[in-house]
Amino acid sequence: MVGRAVAGYFPVSTEHNGKMRLTTKVRYGLRAVCHVAHRGYASAHAISEAQSIPPRYLEEIIADLRKAGIVVGKRGPRGGYRLARPISDIVVGDVVDALAGTVGPGPEAPRDDVTALVERAVDESLAASVRSLRLDELLERARERHRRNAANYVI
Asked: Which run of H or E residues covers position 26?
């Protein structure tokens, strides 16, 4: 993956059509958290199946989300996961922080001042965006998009 850290912590790739993309781990983590938020409670198996996330990778993601206090789990045959706090108290940046860790600028970080200033401004803007987008807002946007797509479906 060609990419760099945004705002010192947010790994992205610009490999796909020049648009910034989240890492696979962050994308899967957001999908898992949204699934749990939508269902209220879900087993790892249900999340893995519904979101097409490899089970072993999901275990790693869930462990990181638990450590960050985003989800809590219950073991056993009827075990599963739920959000650790109200959905309106979780922002996308919380999930990114939990799954991306602290990442420094990549080796292709600019050496000239002008490019560094532009990239810093972009990094700060992106960081502010993920810090302000609440999970409940993200879920509502996803539901609206799903409704629009379903309304446009023609056989």
From this structure: helix 24-39
